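Hi V.,

Quick status before I head out on leave. The structure for the redesign project is tokenized and pasted below; the design run finished overnight.
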């Protein structure tokens, strides 16, 4: 522990644990729109991934939508084909690609198809994620492996395969939907397997931002509150829970601001409402009557 503390790093010791230093995040310098840019998004058939795609589509961007959902789920609406239709209706050019991020071969094929169709890749959004809010004894190994393979390994593989193309882009970005790192045991005890998997995504941000500093902006984005997606409603308790959430558009608007900024802003763990700054956030609430203090906070914050 002493050796870790003596090195120059972005962490600070907080009593019994380490956490990312609470530094003032750099002001995002605008670098134009996403018009003509090519964005590859994993887990893009619904929820936050689709919201980010539709926001980029307003700039007439090219968007590769990666997901393995080709047939409607009985309780989770949306496929890559319905997502592509929504993106095109919003003004973008969509390329729906069947892809399981657990497969290196499928990701490689999706990257190749994206480059063949649009000529390159400017932005990678690592959104695909598997959820499992269970304690150790209630987490079967199949679920553990799924979360590791989708969250951590999927982020690493997708980044690795996109980076050669990103390095040829004018203002390349990698954005991961993952939380700020915090080694407070509070976030490990209730759902150890899920925390390991999500923090693995965040460690990719930490490492890649250092490795490609000055060449590719690599950042994380995480919501302040729970977000009302069909997956959250399905997993955490239905419509009553959703009333205490914000809509996915708060994340997509924050993502847009990050992705249209200069690549010099890198290695940050952004929170959605902090990115948007001083503005009326009530429009993002599912139920505007619920006060801010009544919203459900997201995990890891």
């Amino acid at each position: 522990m002493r050796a870790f503390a003596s090195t120059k790093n972005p962490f600070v010791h907080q009593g019994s644990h380490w956490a990312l230093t609470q530094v003032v995040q750099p002001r995002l310098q605008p670098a134009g729109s996403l018009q003509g840019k090519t964005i590859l998004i994993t887990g893009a058939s619904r929820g936050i991934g689709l919201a980010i795609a539709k926001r980029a589509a307003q700039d007439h961007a090219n968007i590769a939508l990666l997901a393995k959902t080709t047939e409607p789920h009985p309780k989770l609406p949306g496929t890559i084909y319905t997502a592509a239709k929504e993106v095109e209706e919003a003004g973008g050019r969509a390329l729906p690609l069947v892809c399981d991020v657990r497969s290196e071969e499928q990701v490689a094929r999706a990257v190749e198809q994206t480059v063949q169709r649009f000529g390159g890749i400017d932005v990678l959004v690592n959104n695909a994620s598997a959820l499992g809010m269970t304690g150790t004894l209630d987490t079967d190994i199949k679920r553990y492996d799924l979360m590791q393979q989708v969250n951590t390994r999927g982020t690493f593989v997708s980044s690795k395969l996109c980076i050669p193309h990103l390095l040829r882009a004018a203002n390349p970005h990698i954005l991961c939907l993952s939380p700020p790192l915090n080694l407070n045991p509070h976030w490990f005890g209730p759902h150890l397997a899920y925390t390991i998997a999500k923090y693995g995504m965040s460690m990719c941000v930490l490492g890649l931002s250092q490795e490609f500093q000055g060449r590719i902006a690599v950042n994380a984005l995480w919501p302040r509150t729970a977000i009302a997606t069909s997956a959250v409603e399905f997993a955490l308790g239905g419509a009553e829970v959703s009333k205490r959430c914000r809509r996915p558009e708060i994340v997509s608007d924050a993502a847009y601001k990050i992705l249209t900024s200069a690549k010099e802003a890198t290695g940050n763990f952004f929170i959605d409402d902090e990115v948007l700054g001083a503005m009326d956030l009530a429009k993002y609430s599912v139920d505007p009557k619920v006060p801010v203090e009544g919203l459900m906070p997201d995990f890891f914050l």
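Above is the designed sequence. Confidence is low (pLDDT under 50) at residues 1-8.

G. will cover questions while I'm gone.

Best,
W.
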